[in-house]
Structure formats: structure tokens, C-alpha cells
Amino acid sequence: MSFTQDLAAQTQGLRRQIHEMPFNRELAAGTLPAEVFRGYIIQDAHYLEGFARALALAAAKAPDGQAVAQLAGSATGAVAVERGLHAHYMGLFGVSAEAFAASEVSAACDHYVSFLLRSAALGDFAEAVAALLPCFWIYRDIGREIAGQSGPENPYAAWIATYAGEAFDDSVARMLALVDRIGAAADATTQARMHRAFHRACWHEWRFWDSAYHRELWPEVGRVA
Ligand SMILES: Cc1ncc(C[n+]2csc(CCO)c2C)c(N)n1
Questions:
Q1: Which residues have CB under 8 Å from 206's CB, separation 6+?
Q2: Which domain, by its residues, includes 165?
Q3: What average pLDDT does range 60-73 have in this prediction?
Q4: Where is the Thiaminase-2/PQQC domain (predicted)?
Q5: Torsion sign (Cα): 31, 35, 38, 40
Q6: Given a cut of 90, is residue 37 above it in pLDDT?
Q7: Does 222 score more than 80 pLDDT?
Q8: Ligand 1 centre and the CA of 78: distance in Å?
Q9: Residue 118 belongs to domain with CATH number
Q10: Which of 47, 62, 118, 185 could form a Cys-Cys staple with 67, CB 3.0–4.6 A?
Q11: Can you give the pLDDT at residue 72?
């Protein structure tokens, strides 16, 4: 079993739950309320900038030039591809540049981005790539599953096509190969840290969608009696 197959096996239940979330079921059916997707896209635009920074930090720690180029390329790709997609949906849902600039980062987004930046800045390269992998892998699996269930009239077809597409698939395959290479060469303690970081990142993917579905920003603190 490869290292990434082992990561997958250890997180099977959590990842299955992500596929069954109402956000993803309704996205597949095209019935996800526009207001929910609008809020998600705003948070995702905040997320992707942090994600690209974490990739760039990890790139600086890579063991060889090929891995530096791969991660730095993904950082560029994250900003470019995702900005295109976000621009499309922000236009469609009427999110102006001013509205986006004024929007608040949600607690879930802030937590996920902080986790990635911490893993990349304070962890070693192995931990950083393990934390960054679910972002690629889970989106590919969700994209593939949903693409098989939804038609061209689905208002979220452009989002689905991006993550079910070949270009994205290539970047995921390269990331899986990198984590397999690093994981296979790591000692047992490092492998355990990689497992923990991977599991946590899967949890953050779940949380990001859950929070978007419930349109949470920062849950209110109850009034003290
Ligand atoms: C919360 C959240 N997680 C993952 C992605 C997917 N994603 C964002 S950037 C990137 C790398 C290359 O484009 C990928 C796969 C997302 N959009 N939002």
C-alpha cells in the first residue's frame, strides 16, 4: 500500500461524510441556494490567497528544484485558476470588488488558513505537504463524483467542470506522487505527524463546507445572564 493509500484508508469515514454533506448533494443537484454559494465563493476567495501563501512557504522548504517548481507552480495556479472561477461566480452573484474587500473572513476559513500557514511555516516539508494534500485530493474526488451526477443546466457547472477536469487532475496526481515520495522516505515519527496533519486538513475541508452551508461568519457569543 502506498503512503497516500494509507492516508486515504485512515480517513475514509471522514471523507465519505464530506461527499454526503448537504452542500455537496445540493451542488450536484443544482439546488444549492444561490445565497449559500455566494457566501462560499467569497470565503473561498479569501481561502485561496492563504492557500497559495502556504504553498509558497512549503516550496521554499522543498528538498529539490523539481519540488520547488511544482509547489510554486501550484501557488500560481491556485491564484490564477481560482480567480477566474471566482470572477465568473462573483459576476453571476453580484459580488462587487468593494463588497468582497469589505467582506469578513469566516472563523472556519480563518482557522483552515491559519492551520495551513502554521504547518508550512513551523512544520517540516513532510508535514507541510501532508497538510496541503486534502485541498487537492478531496476537490478532485468531489468534482468527479458530482460531474457524473449533474447536467449542463446546473448553475454550478463551471465549478464542477474545473475540479472534474484534466488540468486539475494532473496537478492532483503530481501532489499525490510528491507526498508518496516524501512519506515513503520519512521515519515513523515524521509519518505519524504527516497522518495527523492530513487528518486535520480533511477535517478543515469538512468544516469549511459545513460553515458555508450554515452561512456562519463568527458564531455569536451568548449573552451573559
Ligand atoms: C476550501 C477549499 N479547499 C480546496 C479548494 C481547491 N483548491 C483551491 S486552490 C487549489 C490548488 C490548485 O488550483 C485547489 C485544489 C478550494 N477551492 N477551497
A1: 14, 17, 18, 21
A2: 3-213
A3: 98
A4: 10-214
A5: negative
A6: yes
A7: no
A8: 7
A9: 1.20.910.10
A10: 62
A11: 98
Whether 194 and 126 have beta carbons less than 8 Å apart is answered as yes
Q: Does 225 reside within a domain?
A: no
- Ligand 1, residues 40, 51, 111, 175: which to mutate, most atoms within 8 A of Cβ? 51
Residue 218: all three cell numbers together: 463568527
219: in domain: no
pLDDT confidence bin for 223, thresholds 50/70/90: low
Counting the structural domains of the chain, the total is 1
Report the distance separating Cα 204 and Cα 223, nearest Å: 28
77 lines ligand 1 (CB under 6 A): yes
Q: Does the residue 76 lie in any domain?
A: yes
Give the distance (Å) from ligand 1 centre to CA of residue 152: 22
Cβ 47 vs Cβ 108: under 8 Å: no
At 45, list the grid cell: 476567495
pLDDT band at 224 (very low <50, low <70, confident <90, very high): low
Are 7 and 130 in contact by the 8 Å Cβ rule? The answer is: yes
Residue 87 falls within a domain, yes or no? yes
How far apart are the C-alpha atoms of 157 and 95, rounded to whole Å?
A: 19
